[in-house]
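Researcher: I need the complex structure. Ligand is zinc ion. Inputs:
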Amino acid sequence: MAEHLTIDEILDFVTMDNIDENTLSLIARVNSHILVCKECFELVNAIQLIQEEFERLQTSSDFRSFVSERYSNGRVSSSELQDPLF
Ligand SMILES: [Zn+2]
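Model: Output:
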């Protein structure tokens, strides 16, 4: 199996707002990886949920630093993933 996605890759994926040559390869990498890796699939979903919550709350906290700190070592246990929000 290919290497796991990094937090930075997931953050770029979740926050991208336009599609160009650079983001296309990221989209391809993320999509092909989460098809075969449940762990990363759940991580992407969790981070997307957090981002939606940040947008909903229109918080002034920085989404990227929040996620980077929370998932600082890149991997989280599955028990943490079940409750990604606060
Ligand atoms: Zn993975």
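Model: Summary of the prediction. The CA atoms of residues 22 and 29 lie 11 Å apart.
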